[in-house]
Design brief:
264 residues; six-stranded mixed beta sheet; alpha+beta
Length: 264
């Protein structure tokens, strides 16, 4: 019994040391981070901020995509690996037809970093600043508005060569104003009630050790939708104001409770 107790205490000490080391490596003093598993509501980050208004009360400032989903959700659970090109894939990724997996002619490929069979996560970024939509997240700020309320509407798509699938041009921005605010043509619907939570900006520059300082209200739809790759190429060819012709990498999932806000 003495040896068993000693052994168990040793295992406990090693576990405690590993946990302490992990906590010591986490970025300290930052607000809740993103991306996360939207099916897991736990989080213990103590920094609170007010939820941003609905997107119809804010200005759209940017639209961009990430190849593979940064978040994990009920409809996108297939782990694609670590690193900038990891993330998660739609559950139906292996169920596309041979025709849907055919790549368009090289001359038609105006949007890079995405091919049929890929998963992408699209972010519609909104700001409380009085801005005009443009290139990068810098378009969401001004010298007179450096700490705006930010909101991201997110939808994960399974990309297919299928003109009967959703058309990305139905969700883009072409200069439309609604009640004086810049808005996309529409946001995706029919993919489940969005999960809304407090988080940060994402992207490959950030990890659990290097945190984003921005405070963002997220609204992530839990199911995938099929998207026609030809419409992404059309968006790139159309000269979109965001100057987007490629998809970005992903920030790996944030799992430490200390870096997550509870989902209410």
């Amino acid at each position: 019994m003495h040896y068993l107790i000693t052994f168990c205490l040793g295992i406990f000490s090693l576990s405690l040391a590993a946990t302490t080391a992990l906590s010591a490596n986490l970025c300290q003093g930052f607000g809740p981070q993103t991306p996360r598993d939207i099916s897991d509501t736990t989080g213990s980050n103590p920094i609170n901020f007010s939820r941003a208004p609905e997107p119809t009360q804010l200005n759209l400032c940017n639209i961009h995509t990430h190849t593979n989903a940064e978040h994990k959700g009920p409809g996108f659970t297939i782990f694609a690996g670590d690193g900038d090109h990891g993330g998660y894939q739609c559950n139906d990724s292996k169920r596309l037809t041979d025709a849907e997996l055919v790549e368009p002619d090289h001359a038609a490929m105006a949007y890079h970093g995405v091919k049929p069979g890929d998963t992408i996560e699209v972010h519609w970024v909104y700001t409380s600043c009085q801005v005009t939509p443009g290139k990068g997240l810098g378009s969401c700020l001004t010298k007179a508005c450096t700490n705006p309320e930010l909101r991201v509407e997110s939808q994960v798509f399974l990309v297919a060569n299928n003109k009967s699938a959703l058309n990305f041009m139905d969700y883009t921005y072409r200069g439309q104003l609604v009640a004086g605010l810049h808005q996309p043509k529409a946001l995706p619907a029919g993919t489940g009630e969005p999960v809304v939570f407090a988080g940060s900006t994402t992207g490959t520059s950030f990890t659990q050790e290097i945190c984003s300082p921005f405070q963002v209200t997220w609204s992530v739809r839990p199911q995938c939708a099929k998207l026609d790759i030809n419409s992404l190429n059309e968006w790139a060819k159309s000269g979109n104001v965001f100057q987007k012709d490629h998809s970005h990498g992903v920030r790996q999932l944030v799992t430490a409770p200390e870096l997550l806000a509870p989902i209410n």
